[in-house]
């Protein structure tokens, strides 16, 4: 699949309730958390879109754009819809959205390349990464053609990515890793401390 046909989207619109403040702005190893994923993906895509509702600091690049949720408090699915609408409203040529969370400092672009190499776009309009027995619903590849169904379902109360994806029909792609879990995400201050130790080892 051609990277030029994919818009990279970083979802940073969550409330970070368990963390206590905006975790995308937390300092880890000398840089803010969101910049870990941005620095991994920024060179691989024509554009990167951050979906965030508050003013945030982030890696400076002409490739990086920012938008807010079209409707607040709809969770990650709302962030995906907002990205799809951004594509449509700006007449962008992308057919797919690659979604990434803002709180996974150990994730490497090589994982996404492996995922993309295994995707057969004729098999589904939605693909998620999987490791062992765990599906990673925020690391996904979403066809823009899902926009109308997604908007309709959100209006009807859908909020859970897991359930919505199962109803639509999602294809999972297994990704293997050897050492530290590259999908380890920061939910609490304790998680941040753990990530600091991992990065220092």
Describe the model.
The protein has 201 residues and is α/β, with parallel strands linked by helices. The protein has one domain (3-200): Spore Coat Polysaccharide Biosynthesis Protein SpsA, Chain A (Alpha-Beta Complex). It has 6 helices and 9 strands; from the N terminus they run βββαββαβαββααβα. It has helices at residues 34-41, 75-89, 109-118, 147-155, 161-168, 189-200; strands at residues 6-11, 27-28, 31-32, 48-51, 64-67, 96-101, 126-131, 134-143, 171-174. The strands form 2 sheets. It has a 7-stranded mixed beta sheet, with helices on both faces. Strand 7 and strand 8 form a beta hairpin. Helix 2 (75-89) packs across helix 4. The longest helix has 15 residues, at 75-89. It is globular. It starts with 5 loop residues before the first strand and ends with a helix. The mean pLDDT is 92.
Describe this protein with a few key phrases.
single chain; 7-stranded mixed sheet; two-stranded antiparallel sheet; 9 strands; alpha/beta; Spore Coat Polysaccharide Biosynthesis Protein SpsA, Chain A; 201 residues
Question: Secondary-structure blueprint of this entry?
Answer:
Blueprint: E1 6-11, E2 27-28, E3 31-32, H1 34-41, E4 48-51, E5 64-67, H2 75-89, E6 96-101, H3 109-118, E7 126-131, E8 134-143, H4 147-155, H5 161-168, E9 171-174, H6 189-200
Parallel strand pairs: 1-4, 1-6, 4-5, 7-9
Antiparallel strand pairs: 2-3, 6-8, 7-8
């Amino acid at each position: 699949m051609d990277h030029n046909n994919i818009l990279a989207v970083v979802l940073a619109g969550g409330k970070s309730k368990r963390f206590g403040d905006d975790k995308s702005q937390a300092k880890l190893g000398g840089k803010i958390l969101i910049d870990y994923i941005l620095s991994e993906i920024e060179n691989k895509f024509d554009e990167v879109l951050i979906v965030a509702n508050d003013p945030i600091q982030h890696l400076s690049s002409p490739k990086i754009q920012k938008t807010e949720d079209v409707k607040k408090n709809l969770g990650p699915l709302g962030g995906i819809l907002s990205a799809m609408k951004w594509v449509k409203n700006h007449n962008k040529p992308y057919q797919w959205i690659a979604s990434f969370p803002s709180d996974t400092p150990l994730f490497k672009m090589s994982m996404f390349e492996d995922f993309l190499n295994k995707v057969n776009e004729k098999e589904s309009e939605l693909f998620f990464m999987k490791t062992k027995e765990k599906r990673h619903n925020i690391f996904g590849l979403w066809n823009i053609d899902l926009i109308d169904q997604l908007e309709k379902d959100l209006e009807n109360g859908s909020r859970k990515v897991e359930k919505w994806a199962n109803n639509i029909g999602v294809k999972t792609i297994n990704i293997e890793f050897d050492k530290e879990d590259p999908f380890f995400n920061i939910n609490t201050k304790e998680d941040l401390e753990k990530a600091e130790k991992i990065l220092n080892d």
